[in-house]
Amino acid sequence: MAGAAPDPFAKIRAATDAHRAQHRCGAHPYDNGPLLAALAAAADARRILELGTALGYTALSFASGARDATVDTIERDPEHVQLARDNIAAAALDHRITVHEGDFAAILPTLDPGYDVAFFDGQTPTPALHKTLRGLLRTGGTLITANLNHGGTADAVRKALFDGKSWRSALVDEEGETAISVKL
Ligand SMILES: C[S@@+](CC[C@H](N)C(=O)[O-])C[C@H]1O[C@@H](n2cnc3c(N)ncnc32)[C@H](O)[C@@H]1O
After folding, report:
1. CB 30 within 8 Å of CB 58
2. Residue 122 contacts by C-beta under 8 Å, 6 or more apart in sequence?
3. CA of 51: how far to CAs of 6, 131, 165, in Å?
4. How far apart are CA 85 and CA 92, in angstroms?
5. Residues 112, 81 contacting (CB under 8 angstroms)
6. SS3 state at 113
7. What pLDDT, on a 0 to 100 scale, did the predictor assign at position 38?
8. What CATH class is the domain 32-183?
């Protein structure tokens, strides 16, 4: 998908794939950074929250799309944290992107609510994390959920996103991998 649009961070995406092959980890880069950049720009986002940094590909995409935004991104793998910080510094975006090292469940309660955009890209989504994300997002804010077609706990998350009461949601792709949801 990303091949269809110019991607300023294509090299970091490729480096993430190469890293995963060696590290045998779960660092699967998201397939469309330019989409995330455009969504952040459309939302005129000032504060963005990301779960699942890997090597920084999507955090950089968000920051490049919303030029006044700060990005808080969470990652528990120390090697990923270091590589992401290096990539973010090399892109001269370290004044706007903070990589928080730790588990999602430990870091999220330390963050202030009022995010304009939140992105879940940390393996399979769970209802508990989504409830916490909803609390951190402002009303009218945008939640982007990846890995929604992974089965297991993702099925309950998809059901909640499409219940018509709490969110206005749409699927981005035919596979049902990603949803965009506005907090009602
Ligand atoms: C799919 S990758 C993120 C890819 C990244 N957004 C990108 O597009 O390049 C998921 C990342 O989440 C991290 N992760 C998974 N579960 C986590 C958790 N509970 N707390 C913190 N990090 C977690 C993994 O170490 C991995 O680097």
Report:
1. yes
2. 51, 52, 74, 104, 129
3. 24, 14, 24
4. 10
5. no
6. coil
7. 97
8. alpha beta
Query: What pLDDT sits at residue 5?
Result: 77
Nearest CA to ligand 1 atom 3: 52
Closest to 36 in 3D by CA, of 137, 119, 127: 119
In this predicted model, what pLDDT tens digit does every residue of 16-45 receive, in sequence order? 999 999 999 999 999 999 999 999 999 999
Write down the pLDDT at residue 31: 95
Longest dimension (CA), the chain: 44
pLDDT value at residue 97:
98
Nearest to 42 by CA among 62, 72, 13: 62
Contact 39, 119 (CB under 8 A): no
Sites in the chain below the pLDDT cut of 50: 2
Q: Which atom of ligand 1 is found nearest the CA of 50?
A: 6
Pocket of ligand 1, candidates 123, 144, 145, 177: which has the most ligand atoms within 8 Å of its Cβ, to mutate?
123
State the Cα–Cα distance between residues 92 and 10, nearest whole angstrom. Answer: 16
For ligand 1, atom 2, name the residue with the nearest CA.
27
The Å distance, Cα 163 to ligand 1 centre, comes to 27
For the chain, the domains span: 32-183
d(CA 121, CA 53) in angstroms, rounded, equals 8
